[in-house]
Design brief:
By secondary structure, this protein is mostly helical. The chain is built from 14 helices and 4 strands. The relative contact order is 0.11.
């Protein structure tokens, strides 16, 4: 029986050498590792020099930080008297009237209304972003795009969208539709297309091509292949990224309010402009609670859907 090339190949290591490598406390240092570490060190030194990062400056600013923090205590909560009634809900074709008792009132923190508005902005903005991003993802996925030119153009458009900060979209839409949450919704929706289109496209590119070929072998057309072979495989990752986008948009909606796009950010801007730091802390407490609840909801939904 002829010996195989593998059998005639000399061993490059011995069991004793392998054992020493496994028992070594520190990894063996090579020239490549030293070169990589040197490059990383130079990059970080360059970054520190460019940002004027100085521990001494931070230490010197600690008294100012302490002064700012002490002004926030004790926290205060701005309230207003509300009747024991549900708010009216304006839908497209009709309005759900208020239900409750007019004679009973209770104090309601005003930040609650801003938080509700922020969550509404995140829900609608995220939904619009998902609906718009999926077609872009299908065109930007290498294994699904109908033509290489369409693939490159779609990728380029997604890159351009990611390059523009959400705050710029907010300024544009606030100028277009005026102050309020609608401009924030549009900013969240359009500003999320670049990121979501990219991650959706990468999820589609990671699917099993054999299932696609099996569906195509039955005579399915392109649309049927997308709905029965491509999207079902990509749906777990699409769902996970969509929930992540919702969490991110809740935080982004808070920031967009700083430029008049509604939500909690508008209230925070008011408190900061009036130097009402105690009310600012009260608002931050509710914001932390909101983000925590949204995070727990996202974890629960992810465990149920994926």
């Amino acid at each position: 029986m002829a010996a195989t090339p593998t059998a005639n190949r000399p061993l490059t290591t011995t069991p004793e050498v392998d054992r020493d490598d496994l028992l070594r406390m520190w990894p063996k240092v090579t020239g490549g590792m030293i070169g990589t570490a040197a490059v990383l060190l130079l990059v970080y030194l360059w970054g520190v020099a460019g940002t004027n990062a100085s521990p001494g400056t931070l230490i010197g600013g600690i008294p100012n930080i302490w002064d700012f923090v002490t002004r926030m205590f004790p926290p205060a909560f701005e309230t207003q008297q509300e009747v024991l009634k549900t708010p009216p809900i304006d839908l497209v074709f009709f309005t759900i009237p208020r239900v409750g008792v007019d004679s009973v009132t209770f104090p309601m923190p005003t930040i609650i209304f801003a938080i509700v508005e922020t969550i509404q902005m995140a829900i609608i903005g995220t939904t619009l972003a998902i609906v718009i991003s999926i077609p872009f993802a299908l065109l930007a996925a290498r294994n699904v795009a109908p033509h290489p030119v369409i693939y490159q153009v779609s990728r380029m458009l997604l890159n351009w969208n990611r390059a523009i900060p959400d705050i710029i979209f907010a300024l544009v839409f606030v100028a277009a539709v005026g102050l309020g949450p609608f401009g924030g919704v549009l900013a969240l929706a359009i500003g999320s297309i670049g990121f979501m289109g990219k991650v959706y496209a990468e999820s589609i590119e990671a699917i099993d091509p054999q299932q696609v070929k099996a569906i195509q072998a039955t005579g399915a057309n392109r649309v049927q292949t997308i709905f029965y072979a491509i999207l079902p495989q990509a749906m777990p990752m699409v769902t996970s990224y969509s929930l992540l986008l919702f969490e991110s948009n809740v935080r982004s909606a808070t920031i967009l309010g700083l430029v008049g796009a509604g939500g909690v950010g508008f209230t925070i801007t008011k408190y900061m402009a009036l130097f009402q730091y105690d009310k600012l802390l009260g608002a931050l407490i509710f914001i932390v609670l909101m983000v925590t609840i949204v995070d727990r909801f996202s974890d629960w939904a992810r465990s149920r859907l994926i």
